[in-house]
Amino acid sequence: MEELLKKMHSWMTAYMNRFVTDDEVVMQGIRIKMIHTGYVTTISRELAQHLQLSLHDVQLAEIMGLFHDVGRFRQYSIYKTFNDAQSEDHADLGLKVLAEEMPYLQELSSEDAELVRFAIQNHNKKEIAPTEDKRQLVFARLLRDADKLDIYRVLSPYLTPDGVDRAPKFIKADASQQISPDFVRDFAAGRQADYHKLRTHGDRKLIRLMWVYDVNYSWTLRKMVERGYIDLIIKYLPEQDGLEKGLQRLRNYIEQKCAAKDRVTL
Ligand SMILES: [Fe+2]
Predict the structure, then answer these.
(1) pTM of the model
(2) Ligand 1: distance of its center to the CA of 214 in Å?
(3) What burial class does residue 49 get, using C-beta atoms within 10 Å of its C-beta: 0-12 exposed, 13-18 middle, 19+ buried?
(4) If you measure from the C-alpha of residue 241 to the centroid of ligand 1, how many angstroms do you get, rounded to a whole number?
(5) pLDDT tens-digit profile of 110-133?
């Protein structure tokens, strides 16, 4: 497995390098995804170790992190956007890329290969597809957490009011800091807001904050808190009626979740 991992890493590095170009605007996006890939790979390993998975399973987690966004590169080169709604689902696209171009997944047992595919396919969906398979669920949850933790790192520099202007095109939304009233209502009620109704930069921040409710393992949430990502989002939320109720609910939730112990049985 150690050898196989090495081959997979080399393949991924070479694959990503194929998208390097002189176009600095395109490179902004490509570079972000290259670095994100590195971090998510490391975080997936760390989380798997924290969950006391076997060495084999830690290595599977590493493979999932490594390939989770492989579809981003083809997506960006074809559509010049990272917006799935305006192009195609980048996780589904990633599975296509792996099937067509990555020769090493078939060196895993068919069960392990399926596990990797399931986690990748479900890393960006609104919810994990229903499954009876406990391992599929554990790994899908792990990858979603690793991805979210690193996306908070990626977005942090763009949260300040002037950050909107500095943000690469694909992070930009309507520059308004105000949050739409229906989003504030959903937040106060602890409901997941409807992504498709996202209108402003403020809405986007609130949606990122509500990701907290979708974090699976307390380890991940503790990292998000320790690294200051949550406070940073809250700090730059606009002053708006009704927000405080949602924030209080969120703070209570975070306190409880962080105090919980992660336990998985496989
Ligand atoms: Fe992704």
Answers:
(1) 0.93
(2) 15
(3) middle
(4) 33
(5) 999 999 999 999 999 989 999 999
